[in-house]
């Protein structure tokens, strides 16, 4: 018997997903997620190069130097205002004492009139809102003695003067408060800039610090070469001047009836000699300060900032300089870098935030920056703003 055909529906086969296809799908989803996260995440700031760190630190020190001058200026203004306020308060106290003396004299007149039973205009005066207006009545003034009238006049004069001085003292106190606030702000600015510089340097590795030191040495070497070139130029100029003096002396000696004295044009004029004598005292003082630390706002004797050192050095020569670099640059006469003489002041940066004392041969003595001591250094280590001859 033939076999019957099967009428059962064939079992449908369900295809299993390919492992490769499943992994690829998951990977694509992961890449998409990471791409989305990467797009939304803030990129990390790249680490600055050593050159960038050095530039930033130098700029912070320069800004701190400028803020130090602001601090010095505010400190000076505060001291002046305090002195002014103290003087006004002292004068006001003296005025008050005079006012009290006049008041006591008026009180004595009033008491005497009360005892004698006489009319007591003085007593009325003591309680009047406007004593001068009260005594403007002619008939009342006629009934007073000359001494009483003088006492009243003195009383009114002293009272008006005392009121004026109280107003001036109040105004000066307000100005003093402003100066003190400016002093605090300048101090905070200096401290902030120095803290930023210290933080930058503290993040450097030992290798980075070594590279930074190498960059610094290269900078110093370049400044030294420029100083040496200036020293040669100065030596050549001195030799030329000496040769000219010798030539003029020989001409005078060989000319019949010639002047055998020192004469003009020898370079030993009174002005030059006077300045050289002062400069010698300036440099002698400055050299004894070498090795002392830089401290912003300091004027000696144990530490200095840059303008504090120049002020103290020139004071040793009998010349009073202002406190800040901004004021010192306005003193005396301007000189070109090529014409510098020992004792001249050399100023640096566009904001005139640093100053040093020229000693010759392209070098200066200065108080450099926090963490450094007073030292000799090439004037070409920093960008020169200009120079002055103080006296």
Give an overview of the whole structure.
With 391 residues, this protein is an alpha+beta fold. It has 10 helices and 6 strands. The chain has a 6-stranded antiparallel sheet with strand order 1-6-2-3-4-5. α2 packs antiparallel against α3, α2 packs antiparallel against α6 and α8 crosses α9. The relative contact order is 0.10.
> How are helices and strands ordered from N to C?
HHHHHHHHHHEEEEEE
Low-confidence stretches: 1-42, 260-270
**Total number of strands:** 6
Briefly note the structural class of the backbone: alpha+beta
Q: How many H/I helices? A: 10
What is the first-to-last residue Cα distance?
A: 142 Å
Strand content: 5-15%
Widest β-sheet, arrangement of strands:
1-6-2-3-4-5
Estimated helix fraction: 55-70%
- How much is the radius of gyration in Å? 42 Å
Let me know the largest β-sheet.
Answer: 6 strands, antiparallel
Average of per-residue pLDDT values: 77
- Global outline: flat
List the keywords.
391 residues; alpha+beta; six-stranded antiparallel sheet; 6 strands; disordered N terminus
What's the helix and strand layout?
Elements: H1 19-40, H2 50-116, H3 121-127, H4 131-135, H5 138-142, H6 146-202, H7 206-254, H8 270-288, H9 306-315, H10 325-328, E1 333-335, E2 345-348, E3 354-360, E4 363-366, E5 375-378, E6 384-389
Antiparallel strand pairs: 1-6, 2-3, 2-6, 3-4, 4-5
């Amino acid at each position: 018997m033939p076999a019957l055909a099967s009428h059962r529906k064939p079992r449908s086969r369900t295809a299993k997903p390919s492992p490769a296809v499943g992994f690829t799908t998951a990977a694509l989803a992961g890449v998409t997620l990471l791409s989305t996260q990467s797009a939304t995440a803030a990129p990390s700031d790249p680490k600055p190069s050593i050159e960038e760190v050095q530039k930033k630190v130098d700029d912070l020190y320069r800004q701190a130097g400028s803020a130090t001058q602001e601090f010095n200026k505010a400190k000076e203004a505060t001291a002046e205002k305090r002195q002014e306020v103290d003087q006004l308060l002292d004068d006001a106290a003296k005025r008050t004492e005079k006012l009290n003396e006049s008041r006591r004299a008026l009180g004595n007149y009033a008491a005497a009139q009360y005892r004698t039973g006489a009319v007591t205009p003085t007593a009325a005066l003591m309680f009047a809102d406007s004593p001068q207006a009260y005594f403007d009545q002619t008939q009342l003034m006629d009934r007073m003695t000359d001494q009483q009238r003088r006492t009243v006049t003195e009383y009114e004069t002293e009272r008006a003067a005392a009121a004026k001085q109280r107003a001036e003292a109040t105004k000066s106190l307000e100005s003093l408060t402003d100066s003190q606030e400016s002093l605090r702000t300048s101090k905070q600015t200096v401290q902030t800039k120095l803290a930023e510089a210290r933080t930058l340097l503290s993040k450097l590795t030992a290798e980075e610090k070594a590279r930074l030191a190498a960059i610094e040495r290269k900078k110093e070497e370049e400044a030294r070469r420029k100083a040496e070139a200036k020293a040669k130029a100065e030596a050549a100029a001195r030799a030329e001047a000496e040769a000219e003096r010798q030539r003029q002396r020989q001409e005078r000696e060989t000319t019949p009836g010639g002047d055998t004295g020192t004469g003009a044009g020898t370079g030993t004029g009174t002005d030059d000699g006077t300045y050289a004598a002062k400069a010698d005292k300036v440099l002698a003082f400055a050299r004894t300060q070498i090795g002392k630390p830089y401290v912003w706002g300091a004027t000696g004797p144990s530490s200095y900032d840059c303008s504090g050192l120049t002020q103290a050095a020139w004071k040793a020569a009998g010349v009073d300089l202002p406190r800040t670099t901004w004021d010192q640059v306005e003193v005396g006469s301007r000189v070109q870098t090529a014409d510098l003489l020992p004792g001249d002041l050399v100023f640096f940066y566009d904001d005139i935030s640093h100053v040093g004392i020229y000693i010759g041969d392209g070098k200066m003595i200065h108080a450099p920056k926090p963490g450094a001591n007073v030292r000799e250094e090439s004037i070409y280590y920093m960008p020169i703003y200009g120079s002055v001859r103080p006296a």
